Amino acid sequence: MPTPYGNRGGMAFGAEELRVLRRALALALHPSPASDKDVRDCLRLAESVDDATQEAARMRTFLLADLDRYRAALPGSVTGYLSLLEDALAADHRPGADDLAALRALRGNPAAAALLDRCRTLAEQGVRDRLEARHRPRVPASRTHLLALPGGLLGAGDQPAKPKPAPPRPVPTPSEAFPPKRRPAQPPAPPQELAVG
After folding, report:
1. Tell me, what's the pLDDT at 119?
2. What are the CA-CA distances from residue 57 to residues 45, 53, 121, 173, 196 (Å)?
3. In sequence order, what are the residues at sequence separation of 6 or more whose Cβ sits closer than 8 angstroms to the Cβ of residue 17?
4. In 10 A of CB 185, how many CB atoms?
5. Closest alpha carbon to 49 in 11, 16, 20
6. What is the structure's pLDDT at 14?
7. Does an H or E element contain 12, and which?
8. DSSP state at residue 136
């Protein structure tokens, strides 16, 4: 089973898992019928990767909870806090305002001063990334172009077929858009009686 690699959240695969992974990639790049054994191996590997990913997420949650506890116990826990913060940064933790404030208070410690510079850079990068993500247009998955056609992949020089534009709707004339108001019908005149004689 793949396991989280160190504190960086990566995966370490065994020789058998690497064989299955290579076979799965080969099937993805060069589609061909897969044997029942290949399918079972790929499904087992996918389950193992899911388990390892969940375990890595649990470990990260515990790490961040410990980091919070050590930060709350500063300055007495400075050595443990700096070590945990290093581990958290290696696991893709983005330092927040609490981390920056704690490091500023510990600036007299050379290790804390170095971490403060690193955390400022990461925090600024995180702000830039969030701003870019907010302004990046989101294309719904249903509107993305498919690059493969039924029966195989596109060749190098092939272009995906472009959808034909819908025919334009006719523009209504003013008289159609704003028909004149109809006058109410006049009631019929009462019949006149002719005088006899």
Report:
1. 93
2. 18, 6, 24, 63, 109
3. 1, 2, 45, 48
4. 6
5. 11
6. 81
7. strand 10-12
8. S
3-state secondary structure of 148: strand
Decide: 63 and 87 in contact? Cβ < 8 Å: yes
User: How far is it, in rounded angstroms, from Cα 181 to Cα 187?
Assistant: 18
C-alpha dist (Å) from residue 150 to 4, 29, 33, 50, 154: 38, 16, 16, 30, 10
Q: DSSP character for 61?
A: H
Which residue is associated with the tokens 């290949």? 38
CB distance 40 to 34 below 8 Å: no
Spatial contact of 100 and 112, defined as CB atoms under 8 Å apart: no
Q: What residue spans of 91-159 are helical by DSSP H?
A: 97-105, 110-135
Q: Report the candidate in 105, 63, 69 with the shortest Cα–Cα distance to residue 86.
A: 63
pLDDT at residue 167, as a whole number: 65
Distance of CA 112 to the CA centre of its chain: 33
Q: Are 78 and 112 in contact (CB under 8 A)?
A: yes
pLDDT along the chain (197 residues), means of 10: 50 80 85 86 88 90 93 91 92 91 91 92 90 76 48 50 63 63 65 58
